[in-house]
Write a structure and sequence with these properties.
Elements: H1 3-28, H2 38-66, H3 71-93, H4 99-125
Helix pairs in contact: 1-2, 1-3, 2-3, 2-4, 3-4
């Protein structure tokens, strides 16, 4: 099985983003919400965006693997998702945001989803 490797690597990134958000909360002494603080809002959105996209994309990648998609394809999908999420998290977490990182991260994530969807449909039909 290949997908569990990427599940573990992405879980490490999720923990990192969680701890980063907690650290900002602790420093600013904001227990709930954002306290209208832009730094905390950014940390929360990076974390939330990860939570919104990664689970469904991992399910798609796992589906490709379970349908006997080529192992190189599965590795490419997992690697693209991992790199995409790192780029996105880095880009959005910057106060002076460089949109290249954010856009590249989302393009990699969306591409991973789209290639996975097409692969699943192809592998299921043919």
């Amino acid at each position: 099985m290949i997908t569990p490797i990427y599940v573990a690597l992405l879980a490490i990134l999720f923990l990192f983003l969680s701890f980063k958000t907690i650290k900002v909360r602790k420093r600013l002494q904001i227990g709930v919400g954002t306290g209208d603080n832009p730094e905390l809002l950014r940390a929360m959105r990076v974390h939330a965006n990860f939570s919104e996209y990664v689970p469904i994309t991992l399910i798609l990648i796992l589906s490709v693997e379970l349908l006997k998609g080529h192992f190189i394809l599965v590795h490419c999908l997992g690697t693209a998702l991992l790199i995409g999420r790192v780029l996105h998290a880095y880009g959005v977490s910057q106060i002076k945001e460089n949109l290249k990182f954010r856009v590249s991260g989302m393009l990699l994530t969306f591409s991973t989803m789209l290639v996975s969807i097409i692969s699943i449909l192809y592998l299921s039909i043919f």
